[in-house]
C-alpha cells in the first residue's frame, strides 16, 4: 500500500525504466487514471471503510422499520430488544470505521498532493534552466500548489463515491425486495439526476480553465515583482507594476466569480433534483401504505432511505464537479510533466580534463588553465551569454509559452488555441534538442563539451551567475547543500566570500534559517552567500558572472583578493569590469560584439588600448580615490 510521505522516484530516465514509471501524459484523463492507479490499494481500502462508515445509514432505516413492525406494532418486546441491539452494533461499527476512513482518506489526499509536488520538483530538477524557456514560472508554481491539491481532493472523492455507491446499491436491493416500483425509482434516480446536470458541467469546465489560467498569470506576475522589488524601487516602477498587478488580480477575480456562479448553479440543481426525488419517494410510499401494499415500518424505512439517498446523489454531483476541476488541473500538469530535457549523452562519452585549457569558438576566447581570467565587455549580456556557453547552457532567447487562457473561446476556437500553444511548445523543444545535439563549440582540453556526458560537464565546469538562487533552509544548507564539507571548509568558503556577517547576523549561526531566495538578507549578502556556495564546491573550472555587483568597493576588494588566493592554480573565469577584480587577474580578455578583440594584462591594456580604457572608465570613476590611486601606483599607470 502506498504510504506517506510519498516515494516518487520517476523522471530519472524519461522512460518506464525509472524506479517509478513516468506519469501517463497522453491526455488529462489518462494522467488522472495514472494518479489514481498509484494509490489503487489505498483508495480501495478507503472505499471499504467508507462503506462500513455508512453502514448505520445503509441498514439503519431497514432495522428501524423491522423494529416498528415486529416490536411496536407486533407487540413483541424481545423482537424490539433484538432489533435495538443490532442497531447498536451497526452504529458502533459505523463509528469505528468513520474514524478509520477519515484517517485513510486524509492520507490518500496528502499522498496525491505531495506526490504531485515531488513530481514537479523532480521535473524542475531534471529540466533545469530549460523549463523556464517553455513554461512560465507561475504555471509551474500553480501546478505544484493548487493543482496538486485538486489531485488530492480527487482521490478523496473517488474513495467516498465508491463507498457511497456500495451503500446505494445495497439500499436499492433492500427497497426492491419491499416494493419494485419504489426500488426502481431509488435505483434509477441517482444516474438520472446526475445526467440531468451534466450539460452544466461544460460551461463550468470552461470558466474554471479561465480562472486557473488567470490565477497562474497572477502568480507569475507576483513572482516577478517580488524578485525585482529592489530594482523597481530604484527606478520608481512600483506604481506601474502595482497597477499591472491590480488589473491582473481583478481579471482573476472576475474569472473566479464567473466560475463560482456556475459551480453554485450546479450545486443548486443538485439540491433541487434531490428534493424532487425525496418528495416523489414520500408521495409514492404514502400511496403504497394507503393501498395496504406497505406496512408502517416499511414506510418508515422508505422515508429513511429517501433522506439517505440525498447524500449519495450529492456525492455523485461532487464527484462530477471535482472531476471537472481535476481535468483542468491535469491539462496544466501534463504541459509541465511531459517536457523532456533536450540533452542526450553520447553513446561513448569522453572524459573531460578540468586542468586543461578552455576554448570558445564563437568568441575566440581561450582560457589558460590554472589562472584567473577576467572577461571585460561593454555589454553585460554578451559576457553572460559567453558564460552560458562555457557551462553548456542554452541561451535565454525564447519566451515561455503562455498559460491556457481561452477567455470566451468555445468549441473549435478553444481547441485551436490549445493546439497552437502545444505546437509552440513543440517548436521550442525541437529547437532546444537541435542546439543540444550539435557540436557545442566549446572545448575543454580539445574535447567538445557535446562529446562528454552532461553530468561530467557539470562536475568540471561550474557557472555561478546573477540568477543563482538561495533556497529556504539553514545557512549550512545554503553553503554546503550536499553535506560534503567539514566545518573548517565551510567556514573557509564563507570567509573567502566575505560573508561572515551573515553568520553573525543569524542567532543560530550555521543552523540559522534563511527564507526562500534569502529574502531576509540584503542584496549584497545574498550575492556573497551564493559566491560562498560556488567556492565551497571547488570545481576544476569556476565561471563567475558579476559576482560582486551588489557589494561596496571595500568588500569587493577583499572578495577579489581572497578568491584569487583561494583559486590559485585552478581555472577561474570572472566576467566583470571592476578594476578591483582586474587588479588580481592573471589574464584579461576584452569582448566587442561578442568577439575577443584584445587580451593581456590589465595594466598593459589600460595603458595601450583605447577601447579597453573606455569600457573600464566608468568603473574607474566610480571607485574610491584612495583605492584607485593605490591600484594605479602598483600598476605604474598615472591618471
What do these coordinates show?
- The protein has 639 residues and is of the alpha/beta class.
- It has 22 helices and twelve strands.
- The strands form three sheets. A six-stranded mixed β-sheet has the order 6-9-10-3-11-12, sandwiched between helices. Strands 2-1-4-5 form a four-stranded antiparallel β-sheet, with helices on one face. Strands 7-8 form a two-stranded antiparallel sheet.
- Helix 18 links the parallel strand 9 (541-545) and strand 10.
- The longest helix has 53 residues, at 238-290.
- The radius of gyration is 34 Å and the shape is elongated.
- Residues 631-639 have low confidence and may be disordered.
Q: Approximately how much helix is present in the residues?
A: 55-70%
| Residue-averaged pLDDT | 82
Q: Report low-confidence residues grouped into runs of 5 or more.
A: 631-639
- C-alpha Rg, in Å? 34 Å
Number of helices: 22
Instruction: Determine the N-to-C terminus distance.
Output: 76 Å
What kind of sheet is the major sheet?
Answer: 6 strands, mixed
User: Number of DSSP strands?
Assistant: 12
Question: Keywords, please?
Answer:
65% helix; elongated; 4-stranded antiparallel beta sheet; alpha/beta; 22 helices; 639 residues
In short:
The protein contains 22 helices and 12 strands.
Amino acid at each position: 500500500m502506498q504510504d506517506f510521505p510519498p516515494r516518487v522516484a520517476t523522471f530519472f530516465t524519461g522512460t518506464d525504466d525509472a524506479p517509478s514509471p513516468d506519469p501517463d501524459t497522453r491526455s488529462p484523463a489518462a494522467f488522472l487514471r495514472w494518479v489514481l492507479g498509484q494509490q489503487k490499494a489505498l483508495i480501495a481500502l478507503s472505499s471499504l471503510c467508507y462503506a462500513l462508515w455508512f453502514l448505520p445509514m445503509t441498514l439503519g432505516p431497514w432495522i428501524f422499520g423491522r423494529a416498528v413492525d415486529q416490536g411496536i406494532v407486533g407487540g413483541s418486546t424481545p423482537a424490539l430488544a433484538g432489533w435495538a441491539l443490532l442497531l447498536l452494533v451497526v452504529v458502533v461499527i459505523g463509528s469505528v470505521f468513520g474514524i478509520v476512513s477519515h484517517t485513510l482518506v486524509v492520507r490518500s489526499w496528502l499522498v496525491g498532493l505531495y506526490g504531485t509536488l515531488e513530481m514537479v520538483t523532480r521535473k524542475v530538477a531534471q529540466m533545469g534552466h530549460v523549463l523556464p524557456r517553455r513554461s512560465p514560472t507561475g504555471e509551474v508554481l500553480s501546478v505544484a500548489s493548487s493543482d496538486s491539491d485538486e489531485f488530492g481532493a480527487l482521490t478523496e472523492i473517488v474513495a467516498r463515491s465508491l463507498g457511497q455507491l456500495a451503500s446505494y446499491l445495497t439500499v436499492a436491493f433492500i427497497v426492491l425486495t419491499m416494493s419494485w416500483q419504489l426500488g426502481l425509482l431509488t435505483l434509477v434516480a441517482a444516474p438520472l439526476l446526475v445526467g440531468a446536470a451534466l450539460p452544466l458541467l461544460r460551461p463550468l469546465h470552461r470558466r474554471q480553465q479561465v480562472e486557473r489560467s488567470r490565477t497562474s498569470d497572477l502568480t507569475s506576475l507576483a513572482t516577478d515583482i517580488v524578485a525585482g522589488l529592489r530594482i523597481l524601487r530604484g527606478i520608481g516602477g512600483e506604481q506601474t507594476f502595482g497597477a499591472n498587478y491590480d488589473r491582473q488580480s481583478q481579471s482573476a477575480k472576475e474569472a473566479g466569480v464567473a466560475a463560482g456562479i456556475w459551480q453554485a448553479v450546479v450545486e443548486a440543481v443538485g439540491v433541487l433534483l434531490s428534493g424532487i426525488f425525496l418528495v416523489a419517494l414520500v408521495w409514492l410510499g404514502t400511496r403504497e401504505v394507503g393501498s395496504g401494499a406497505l406496512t408502517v415500518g416499511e414506510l418508515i424505512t422508505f422515508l429513511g432511505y429517501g433522506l439517505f439517498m440525498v447524500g449519495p446523489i450529492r456525492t455523485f454531483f461532487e464527484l462530477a464537479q471535482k472531476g471537472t476541476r481535476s481535468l483542468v488541473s491535469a491539462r496544466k500538469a501534463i504541459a509541465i510533466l511531459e517536457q523532456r530535457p533536450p540533452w542526450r549523452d553520447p553513446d561513448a562519452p569522453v572524459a573531460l580534463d578540468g586542468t586543461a585549457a578552455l576554448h570558445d569558438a564563437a568568441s575566440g576566447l581561450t582560457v589558460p588553465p590554472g589562472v584567473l581570467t577576467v572577461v571585460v565587455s561593454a555589454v553585460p549580456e554578451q559576457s553572460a551569454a559567453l558564460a552560458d556557453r562555457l557551462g553548456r547552457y542554452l541561451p535565454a532567447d525564447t519566451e515561455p509559452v503562455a498559460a491556457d487562457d481561452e477567455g470566451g473561446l468555445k468549441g473549435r476556437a478553444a481547441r485551436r488555441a490549445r493546439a497552437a500553444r502545444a505546437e509552440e511548445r513543440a517548436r521550442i523543444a525541437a529547437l532546444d534538442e537541435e542546439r543540444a545535439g550539435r557540436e557545442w563549440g566549446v572545448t575543454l582540453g580539445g574535447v567538445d563539451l557535446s562529446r562528454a556526458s552532461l553530468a561530467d560537464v557539470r562536475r568540471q565546469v561550474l557557472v555561478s551567475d546573477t540568477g543563482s538562487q538561495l533556497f529556504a533552509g539553514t545557512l549550512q544548507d545554503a553553503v554546503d547543500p550536499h553535506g560534503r564539507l567539514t566545518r573548517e571548509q565551510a567556514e573557509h568558503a564563507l570567509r573567502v566570500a566575505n560573508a561572515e556577517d551573515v553568520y553573525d547576523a543569524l542567532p543560530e549561526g550555521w543552523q540559522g534559517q534563511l527564507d526562500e531566495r534569502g529574502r531576509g538578507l540584503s542584496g549584497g549578502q545574498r550575492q556573497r552567500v551564493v559566491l560562498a556556495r560556488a567556492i565551497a564546491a571547488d570545481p576544476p573550472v569556476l565561471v563567475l558572472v558579476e559576482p560582486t555587483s551588489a557589494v561596496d568597493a571595500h568588500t569587493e576588494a577583499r572578495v577579489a583578493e581572497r578568491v584569487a588566493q583561494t583559486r590559485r592554480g585552478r581555472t577561474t573565469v570572472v566576467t566583470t569590469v571592476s578594476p578591483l577584480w582586474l587588479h588580481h587577474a592573471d589574464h584579461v580578455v576584452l569582448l566587442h560584439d561578442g568577439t575577443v578583440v584584445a587580451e593581456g594584462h590589465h595594466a598593459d591594456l589600460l595603458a595601450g588600448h583605447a577601447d579597453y580604457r573606455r569600457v573600464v572608465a566608468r568603473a574607474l570613476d566610480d571607485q574610491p580615490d584612495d583605492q584607485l590611486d593605490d591600484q594605479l601606483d602598483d600598476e605604474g599607470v598615472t591618471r
